[in-house]
């Protein structure tokens, strides 16, 4: 049967052979379906020979159409548009709405017991027959590429889109319909339709990035990578555009301490006022100058040059004397010129 239009060819011999019953049984069942109103005649067959090539005799086929009796629609409260075989349901009456509400309020049937049954496999251990049953599946429901939950309706819609878009995208034709449907579920859950999915697949065309002859061997894996890349870019943009947290307001103790530091306080104790640093004593100054003079005689200029670099030349002259600082700087300059001058060859 064609499940789109509900048309079926009355292939008597073929139906009997496929179902495994006699021809008389097929005729009897078709008669019951016609009497019920589930089958109507669309094309009446005849015994006239069609004279098809390679066949001695071929009669005209009988074509039936699957229908729903009008009495069923009246009982269920369906509103119909059109008439005859082309009639379609377009709404529901008050009676049908009440029937639907009543059916929804009825308790659902309880599931079958998981206890032993005659069909349950058994295992024999030590002469004792113990009824066993298959272990329950602990497999978690599979998530989409972006971690969303999958519903049957979403997968069906994604499969329809994949079936329609696969012939339109040449680089995705290596993937099956199920593979394309699985990577397109996230777009379906976001509310995308066929046209939008088709435009997106054209935007992520690998030929535009890797050359006109490039085609991925696993198109569904390439599409999954593009989905993850888009999510990473969206997260980065969202984090960049997120409002910055407001600075924390300082507490009262911090504010008071800041005010005292800026304005000063008249009731400070002498211990709170920082005292100026005292310089070295005469004895310490004499020891420093002796050590610097000894280093100068040994051609070691690091002590005084470090003082000049860190404290400044004026402070170094105050510690070691202007004459020793001047001689040390000249000695360092002479050493530097000697190292950088080119060697003379004879």
Helix fraction, binned, reads 40-55%
Ends distance? 110 Å
Strand runs, count? 7
Any idea what the radius of gyration is? 47 Å
Q: H/E series, N to C?
A: EHHEEHEEHEEHHHHHHHHHH
Low-confidence stretches: 118-125, 266-274
Morphology call: elongated
Summarize the main sheet.
Answer: 3 strands, antiparallel
Query: How many discrete domains?
Result: 3
Beta fraction: 5-15%
Structural class: mainly alpha
Spatial strand order of the main sheet? 1-3-2
Mean pLDDT score: 78
Number of helices: 14
Describe this protein with a few key phrases.
two-stranded antiparallel sheet, 346 residues, 3-stranded antiparallel beta sheet, 8% strand, 3 domains
Molecular structure report:
This protein is mainly α. It folds into three domains: 96 residues, no CATH class; 89 residues, no CATH class; 58 residues. The protein has 14 helices and seven strands. It has a three-stranded antiparallel sheet with strand order 1-3-2. The chain has a two-stranded antiparallel sheet with strand order 4-5. Strands 6-7 form a two-stranded antiparallel ribbon. About 5% of the residues have low confidence.
Task: Chart the SSEs and their pairings.
Elements: E1 7-9, H1 12-19, H2 23-36, E2 39-43, E3 63-66, H3 70-76, E4 78-81, E5 88-92, H4 94-105, E6 122-125, E7 128-131, H5 152-165, H6 177-189, H7 194-203, H8 207-210, H9 219-241, H10 252-263, H11 282-297, H12 302-311, H13 313-320, H14 322-340
Antiparallel strand pairs: 1-3, 2-3, 4-5, 6-7
Helix pairs in contact: 1-2, 5-6, 6-9, 12-13, 13-14
């Amino acid at each position: 049967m064609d499940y789109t239009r509900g048309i079926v060819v009355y292939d008597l011999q073929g139906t009997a052979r496929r179902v495994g019953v006699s021809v008389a049984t097929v005729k009897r069942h078709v008669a019951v379906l016609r009497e019920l109103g589930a089958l109507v005649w669309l094309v009446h067959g005849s015994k006239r020979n069609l004279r098809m090539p390679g066949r001695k005799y071929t009669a005209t086929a009988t074509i039936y159409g699957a229908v729903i009796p009008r009495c069923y629609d009246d009982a269920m409260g369906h509103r119909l548009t059109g008439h005859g075989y082309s009639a379609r349901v377009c709404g529901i009456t008050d009676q049908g709405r009440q029937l639907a509400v009543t059916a929804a309020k009825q308790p659902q049937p309880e599931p079958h017991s998981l206890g032993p049954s005659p069909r349950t496999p058994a295992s024999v251990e030590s002469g004792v027959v113990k009824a066993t049953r298959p272990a329950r599946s602990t497999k978690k429901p599979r998530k989409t590429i972006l971690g969303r939950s999958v519903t049957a309706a979403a997968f069906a819609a994604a499969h329809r889109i994949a079936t329609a878009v696969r012939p339109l995208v040449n680089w995705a034709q290596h993937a099956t319909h199920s593979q394309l449907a699985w990577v397109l579920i996230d777009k379906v859950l976001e509310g995308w339709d066929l046209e939008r999915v088709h435009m997106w697949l054209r935007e992520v065309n690998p030929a535009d990035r890797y050359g006109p002859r490039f085609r991925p061997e696993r198109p569904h894996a390439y599409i999954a990578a593009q989905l993850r890349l888009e999510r990473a870019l969206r997260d980065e943009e969202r984090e960049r555009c997120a409002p910055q947290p407001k600075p924390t307001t300082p507490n009262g103790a911090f504010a008071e301490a800041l005010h005292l530091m800026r304005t000063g306080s008249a009731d400070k104790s002498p211990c709170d006022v920082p005292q100026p640093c005292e310089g070295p004593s005469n004895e310490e100054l004499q020891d420093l100058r002796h050590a610097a003079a000894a280093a100068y005689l040994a051609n070691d200029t690091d002590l005084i040059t470090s003082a000049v670099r860190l404290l400044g030349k004026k402070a170094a002259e105050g510690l070691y004397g202007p004459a020793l600082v001047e001689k040390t700087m000249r000695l360092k300059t002479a050493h530097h010129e000697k190292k950088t001058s080119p060697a003379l060859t004879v």
